[in-house]
Structure prediction request, 185 residues.
Amino acid sequence: MIKELLRETGNRMQKALQNLEADLKSVRTGRASPALLERVKVNYYGTATPLNQLAVISAPEPHLLVVRPYDPSSLGDIERGIQQADLGLNPNNDGRIIRVPIPRLTEERRRELVKQVNRRVEETKVTIRNIRRDALEELREYEDESLISEDDFTRARDQLQDVTDSYTEKAEEITERKEQDIMQV
Prediction:
């Protein structure tokens, strides 16, 4: 019962980290990456649709993204979607494809991006702590219902804290890697 709860808690924390990593892929670094545009929503026939479902996104050069829409009539919508995504990018539409030059980041913009990353990581840590709190409440219920002893509760609580600490450390490692990517000139 306790092992199952700890395993489920670990799985939920792992999903929180996976969401963080996916979220951080959309944060700009100095290089062009198709992941930068994957989460951009485009108003396509009245529906907010992810850009990666409407077009092929490639990075032929380190400072250029190319967006090739499946439907050429959606070029204008895709261009507007990229502009409204607040990524600081200015797409160029030539009638067939959209070129998105990735400007070099200034030191000030790099620091803003690092702050943005730190905010997202802090939100993930809060999520991890909330998952821990839920598991701890469940352990207390087990103890109150005499399903586990007080000693089992104490051991499980310590194991839960160890799991939480390990996922928090992993979130910190993800942060450090992303900060290095952003600050690298």
Observations:
- The beta strands are 41-44, 47-50, 55-61, 64-69, 92-93, 98-101.
